[in-house]
Structure formats: structure tokens, C-alpha cells
Amino acid sequence: DAGVIQSPRHEVTEMGQEVTLRCKPISGHNSLFWYRQTMMRGLELLIYFNNNVPIDDSGMPEDRFSAKMPNASFSTLKIQPSEPRDSAVYFCASSRGAGGRETQYFGPGTRLLVL
Amino acid sequence: GIQVEQSPPDLILQEGANSTLRCNFSDSVNNLQWFHQNPWGQLINLFYIPSGTKQNGRLSATTVATERYSLLYISSSQTTDSGVYFCAASTQGGSEKLVFGKGMKLTVNP
After folding, report:
1. For residue B40, which phi and psi values (nearest 5 degrees)?
2. Rounded to an integer, what is the distance from CA A65 to the centroid of its chain?
């Protein structure tokens, strides 16, 4: 298996622009997670889906952030409008089964810089 | 929510030395995982270990759920072991989301 695939790997944008991050989970995995990593806050869960349904979005920082999972093999995390404080590495992870009770496999991350 | 604390925060070793990383958590867990983030940023799952002991080559991990801690052992360390090690846990009856510790930076010198 190719593992979790994320795109783009790097994104540089200007404040106010829309940013869309993409993730393809491992085939057969039922749960998908979006994390954000910064020096100040470490690794934080933003949202997770089980069977394409959002289960916990309490980590989504504000209304500028939205996530969708239209099918079992694709998810997007969108930031509109972006701000410099959104600069971080965004990871997508997937696991078999429900929620956090299974091993999670991480993608390579998207390094986002908002100028 | 659950608190996850790791110690020590940083560690420098000479190649060949052994080390023990500790993770304390504040609540009963149904999931405890150890991850290694390499210098290129990739997060690799090392162990899924909510209880008991597991071994994988030079690495092993033990979780004592009743005492709310987990240990990661690295034996005969190599320079490729350098990076940041994270412990993450989720609670029984909680939202099942993993909460990560702040990580422990390991540097193995040749």
C-alpha cells in the first residue's frame, strides 16, 4: 500500500487566500484524522471522521476552517480566508475501525506558510 | 481532558547507549501509541500499546495502565534513532481522539 497520501507537500500563500489541503487515506481504513503541528501548540487533532462522517470537530480552531470527506478515499481541509497564524504542518492520518482505538498511520504532512 | 506528559524533554546519547523514555497519563486509556518523528518530519507509528509489553527489534514498550504510565526502551541506539518521540493517548469513554504529549527530542551522536 502507498500509505496515506497528502497534497500539496508545501504551500506558500498570501493572507486572505483560500487554501485547500488534500488527503487520501490507506485503502480499507474507516477513520481519518486531520492534525496540525506548531512549535507553540505541538500536535493537535482538528477533526476526525469515521465512515466519512465527522465525529469530533472540537479541535477546529474557528469558522475559517472546514473539512469534508465526500467518500472513503478522499478528504479535504480548507482554510478561507487564511491568516499568518495558520502557518503550520498539517498531517492527515488514517486507521482501521473507529476513532482512536486503532493504530494511526500518518501521511507526510503539508507544510503551509501564510505570508 | 486527558493530560499526557513525557520525560525527559531532551536527551543526548552516544551511539550504542540505551535509553528509557517515560510517558505519564492522567486517566484510564483505551489507546496508547508511541510515534517517532524523524528529522524530515515524518511521523512513524512505533507501538500501539494500551497495556502490556511489546518488542520490535531494538525497541520495546511497556504500558502499566493501572499506574498510568508507559515506557519506551531503545537499546544500542543508532544515529538513525535521532528525532522526536511522541506518546499519545485516548481515554475510555471519551471522544476517542488521541492527545499527544509534547515530545522528547533524542539526539544520538556517532
Report:
1. -95, 0
2. 10
Q: How far is CA B11 from CA A9, A74, A100, B108, in A?
A: 30, 39, 29, 8
Distances (CA, A) of B109 to A40, B8, B38, B42, B80: 27, 18, 15, 20, 10
What torsion, rounded to 10 degrees, do the Cα atoms A19, A25, A31, A37 define?
-50
Residues of B with CB under 8 A from a CB of A: 30-31, 33, 35, 41-45, 48, 86, 88, 90, 95-103
Task: Using a CB–CB cutoff of 8 Å, tell me whether A90 touches chain B.
Answer: no
Mean pLDDT of B30-47: 93
> Is B100's CB within 8 Å of A59's CB?
no
Cα A107 from Cα A89, distance rounded (Å)? 11
Q: Is residue B95 predicted with pLDDT exceeding 70?
A: no
Amino acid at A60: M
